[in-house]
Amino acid sequence: MDIAKVFRDAKVELSKVIFPTKTQVKQAYISVIVVVSAIAAFLALVDLVMSSIVSAILG
Predict the structure, then answer these.
(1) Collapsing DSSP states into helix, strand and coil, what is residue 15?
(2) Can you give the pTM of this predicted structure?
């Protein structure tokens, strides 16, 4: 296996990759932040409700 062939093949395969545009990256980033924030808020609310229930039962 020739090392030069490995690099040529890697270059050919890399040329087939479609990289996202700046706009696509920005949209994906915003989507991830929104979803993570929504899940965190939901879990915080569930935690608050569950701890209130447990406190009411034990207290």
Answers:
(1) helix
(2) 0.68
Q: Does a structural domain hold residue 34?
A: yes
What are the structure tokens assigned to 9, written together?
């093949």
Q: Is residue 11 part of a domain?
A: no
Please check whether residue 2 lies inside any domain of the structure.
no
Q: Scanning the structure block, which residue is given the tokens 């924030």?
A: 37
Domain region containing 23: 19-58
What would the two tokens of residue 42 be? 């939901």
Tell me 16's DSSP state.
T
pLDDT digits (tens, 9 = 90+) for 9-56: 999 999 999 999 999 999 999 999 999 999 999 999 999 999 999 999
